[in-house]
Design brief:
Elements: H1 10-28, H2 30-40, H3 42-69, E1 75-78, H4 83-105, H5 107-111, H6 113-120, H7 155-165, E2 169-171, H8 172-200, H9 202-210
Antiparallel strand pairs: 1-2
Helix pairs in contact: 1-3, 1-8, 2-3, 3-6, 4-7, 7-8, 8-9
């Protein structure tokens, strides 16, 4: 039950998140990519899809954040300085984990700029974005253990979760959002595991046995 009249709107938080998640998941699916391939051909699909996907992600995320900010809400707790500085530092560290993973994957490739530049260059072959977002294969055909990928198989999702978890001001709506983000992080990471195993085969199985799923620790080997 949505009790917005008491300063709390959980149903609307869930609806906003569900709409964003549905759009994000549908456009990230293999079916959507295959449809784009049939419509535009491999060159334009490879050159444009990742960049267009990221662009809509930013726009839809801005829409979701704007809608969320206008909902009635109430405080659960508010950590004041100097203790809030520790939480802000933890948020910064979480973003550092996320960016470390992006750096290993390649910032330009992750953003979709590498295939877009290839497409605009004309004669050059377009290097497609990877089908699954994870560490690349090295020259030895093994998954690269670098940056945050040495300690977590999904540092981007871990960093996103940490950013929300360490908010100094927690409200009722933010608490609902935190639970939803946690669910999305776990389920999304499990789905990404399936795609990475399909893409890398035995190499990813060896990486999976050496590096933990989400919570960081030292790798086994």
């Amino acid at each position: 039950m949505d009790v917005a009249d008491e300063g709390f709107a959980p149903v609307r938080v869930i609806l906003i998140c569900a709409l964003w998640t549905l759009l994000h998941s549908l456009l990230a699916s293999k079916q959507a990519k295959d449809l784009a391939l049939r419509i535009s051909g491999p060159r334009y699909r490879d050159g444009l899809y990742r960049f267009a996907f990221n662009a809509q992600s930013v726009v839809s995320l801005f829409w979701a954040a704007l809608r969320f900010s206008r909902l009635p809400d109430r405080d659960l707790y508010h950590v004041r300085p100097p203790w809030s500085w520790l939480l802000r530092a933890s948020q910064a560290a979480s973003l550092g984990v996320l960016l470390s993973g992006v750096r290993v994957m390649g910032i330009l490739r992750f953003a979709g700029l590498t295939p877009l530049i290839d497409l605009l260059a004309g004669g050059r072959d377009v290097r497609p974005a990877p089908e699954a977002q994870g560490p690349p294969l090295g020259s030895d055909e093994e998954v690269v253990k670098a940056g945050a990928f040495r300690f977590s198989r999904h540092p981007g999702n871990l960093g996103a979760l940490g950013f929300f978890l360490f908010l100094p001001r927690m409200t009722a709506n933010r608490a609902v959002l935190l639970v939803l983000v946690g669910l999305y992080v776990v389920l999304g990471s499990m789905h990404e595991e399936h795609r990475l195993r399909a893409a890398y085969g035995a190499a990813y199985e060896r990486y999976r046995r050496a590096v933990p799923f989400l919570i960081p620790r030292r790798p086994r080997g």
